[in-house]
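Record type: ASSEMBLY
Status: queued
Input:
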Amino acid sequence: MTVVRHEPFADIARQREADRLGMVVFLASEAMLFGALILGLLALRMFEPVAFAKMSERMILVAGAANTAILLTSSLLVAIGAEAMSAGRERLTRTMFALAALLGIAFLVIKFTEYRIEYLEGIMPGAGPKQDFASPGERMFMDGYFVATGLHAFHVIVGIGLLAGSSWRLYRRDPPSVVGIENVGLYWHLVDVVWVFLFPILYLSR
Amino acid sequence: MALRSLIWVWVALLLLLAATVGASFLPIGQWRQLINLMIAFAKAALILWFFMKLRDEKMLVRLMAAMAGVLLLIMAIMLTADYHFRS
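Status: finished
Output:
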C-alpha cells in the first residue's frame, strides 16, 4: 500500500506528520467546543448543586451506561480496523468499520428513546405534554443535557456516515487512503472521549 | 500495535466504566465528583494514548493535542476562581 507524495512535502514522513497534525488541530477545536459545554455543566453543578443532583438522578442510568459501553466497544473495533488498514488487511477494516457504524446506530436508538421518555415525563424544556421542573436550576440542567447530548448525537451521526462511507468504499474497491481511514478513526475516538466525560457529569452526579 | 494490547485497553476501559458507575452508589458524598472526574480522565487518556495512537506520534502532534487540554484547564481554573471569589 503506497502513499503518494505530493507538494510541498520533501518526503513521505513529513507529509504524514502534516496530515496527522492537521487532523489533530481539527479534533482539538472540537474538544474545545465540547469542553466549553462541559465546563458550563460543571459551572451549573457548582452553582446549583441540589437541583443538579436531583435532575441527574432522574436520568436513566442503565441507558447511559449501556451507551458508554457501546461507544467504548465501537472505539475498539475502529482501532482494530485502522490498524488493519495499515497492515493492508482491507477486508478486516471494512468489517470493523461497518460493525462500529452499527454500534453507533444502537447508541442513537438508545439516546432517542431516552429523549422520548424525557419528553413524555415533562423534563424536555419547552416541549412535551407538561413541564415538570421544580426550579429554574432543574430546567437549566435539562437545557445543558439536551444541548450537550444533542450536539454529541449530531457528531455521532456524522461519525456513522464516515464509518459507513469508508466501509462502503472499501467494499466497492475504491478504498480511501490509509491516512483517510486513520482520520475517520480519530474522529470516532474523539466522539467517544467526549461521551466519556458527558456520562459521569450528567448521569452520575447524584 | 498488537490486537491483544487493544483488547486489554478495552477491558481496562470497561472496568473503569464499572468503577465509575459503582462509585456513584457508594456513600462517599463529595468525593464522588472528584473520583468520577479522575476516572473520566483516565479513560480519555487510555483512548488518546492507545486507540488514537498518540503513543506512536511525534512530539509536535502530542503537543498540539495537549494544548487543547491546557486551554480547557485554564478555563476551568478561571471558572473555579470566579466561583470562589463571589461573596
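Annotation: Chain A has six helices and no strands.
Annotation: Residues 93 and 141 of chain A are 40 Å apart (CA to CA).
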